[in-house]
Write a structure and sequence with these properties.
It contains nine helices and eight strands. The chain is an alpha/beta fold and 234 residues long. The protein has a single domain, classed as P-loop containing nucleotide triphosphate hydrolases (Rossmann fold), CATH 3.40.50. A five-stranded parallel β-sheet has the order 2-6-1-7-8, with helices on both faces. Helix 2 crosses helix 4, helix 3 runs parallel beside helix 5 and helix 4 packs parallel to helix 8. The radius of gyration is 17 Å and the shape is globular. The two termini are 20 Å apart. The chain binds 2'-deoxycytidine-5'-monophosphate. 2'-deoxycytidine-5'-monophosphate binds next to helix 2, helix 4 and helix 8.
Length: 234
């Protein structure tokens, strides 16, 4: 039985990558999944989609019924683009850029604290992940979504470095954002994600911790692959 209580024929591994914003989880998870031939599930993008749609629909954060209906009705599609990046569609619309603005980042952090939202997305994440050969990236994968995941990583980096990366990312997209302001946003999200009541950002006791502050992407991938390849079921 998997944590969702459903019997499945699991193949390969379930790999969890958790950690704070800007630690490099998405880039690493995407590249690692490509190397292993695994599915990559960006759970943050699921929460971001709900935040964008809630904003568009004028939903209040106190409207649990409205949020539940939204979570149940929205159709989120992950599509791999030619350059191997992942595009996110909701109801047929490409929302990949729209869900990554600073405003939606902060709203997502608040909406993801809602139990009603977490409960529904948790079930979806388990349904997708329980077949195995999957890398799930988020905040609570190794602690709540798949506490029995085969391999758990906790990827972190110093807040200033995470803010700097996010700042470069936003500016590359042509969005006007200051460095100090971006570091402050990252710190605020850390605090919100760590202090919320339901499924807070927390390192699983059995997670392998990697500090990416001074590591290249390649170095992180090599370190992770070394851990994963030891497992005969990979
Ligand atoms: O990974 P990200 O920056 O795209 O995540 C956006 C927000 O979503 C983050 O501030 C916290 C929330 N989140 C969460 O609560 N649980 C997850 N498994 C993934 C993201």
């Amino acid at each position: 039985m998997n944590p969702a209580g459903v019997d499945t024929i699991k193949k390969g591994l379930i790999i969890a990558i958790d950690g704070p914003s800007g630690a490099g989880k998405s880039t690493i998870a995407r590249l690692l999944a490509a190397r292993l031939g695994y599915l990559y599930l960006d759970t943050g993008a699921m929460f971001r989609t709900i935040a964008l749609m809630a904003k568009r629909g004028g939903l209040s954060l106190d409207d649990d019924d409205g949020l539940a209906a939204l979570c149940r009705s929205v159709e989120i599609l992950f599509v791999r683009a030619d350059d191997d990046s992942c595009r996110i569609f909701a109801g047929g619309e490409d929302i990949s850029e729209l869900i990554r603005t600073p405003e939606i980042s902060l709203l997502t952090s608040r909406i993801s604290a809602k139990k009603v939202v977490r409960d529904i997305l948790l079930q979806l994440q388990r349904d997708i992940g329980s077949v195995g050969r999957v890398i799930l990236e988020g905040r609570d994968i190794g602690t709540v979504v798949f506490p029995d995941a085969d391999v758990k990583f906790f990827l972190s980096a110093r807040p200033e470095e995470r803010g700097r990366r996010r700042f470069l990312e936003l500016n590359a997209k042509g969005e006007k954002a200051g460095l100090e302001e971006t570091i402050a946003e990252v710190l605020l999200r850390d605090a919100q994600d760590e202090q919320r009541e339901h499924a807070p950002l927390r390192q699983a006791p059995d997670a392998i911790v990697i500090d990416s502050t001074f590591l290249s992407i390649e170095e992180i991938l090599v370190e992770m692959e070394a851990v994963i390849r030891v497992n005969p079921s990979v």
